[in-house]
């Protein structure tokens, strides 16, 4: 029986310059030379929940068919982890690709405050305050109305998942 729920995660980022192709050379990517670009990333192992009684739920049916800001479709007041991925597809069958950008809002009503994920990008969030520990506190929108399929996974510290 698990005594704690922990999360191990690692992330690495390398800014680069893309040198365009010309008559003699193909396009080339070169790592950025600024010393401030080194060390962009992290590797951590920390306690997510005090015991092993963590419920996991996936909402693989968040399909955005227009640019309307839409709250996540479930209520779960003790959320301890939220994972969101812009799949780069228009629908759950993952047949038709899209370059639509996913906008993520911390409040459905604050339409100018958001961050974005491009096709194939994901984010894992944790450490929520009481004003953001329910999936319905978070909202999504697509950058265009052609359709965007978003994968969402939630972990909860109680049985209300």
Describe this structure in words.
- This protein has strands at 5-12, 16-19, 28-31, 41-49, 55-58, 62-64, 70-71, 79-86, 102-105, 114-117, 122-126, 139-142, 148-156.
- With 161 residues, it is mainly beta.
- Strands 5, 6, 8, 11 and 13 form a five-stranded antiparallel sheet that branches. A four-stranded antiparallel sheet has the order 7-12-9-10, with no helix packed on it. It has a two-stranded antiparallel ribbon with strand order 1-4.
CATH homologous superfamily of the domain at 52-156, by name? Jelly Rolls
User: What is the global morphology?
Assistant: globular
Helix content bin: under 10%
CATH topology of the domain at 52-156: Jelly Rolls
List the uncertain runs. Answer: none
Mean pLDDT: 85
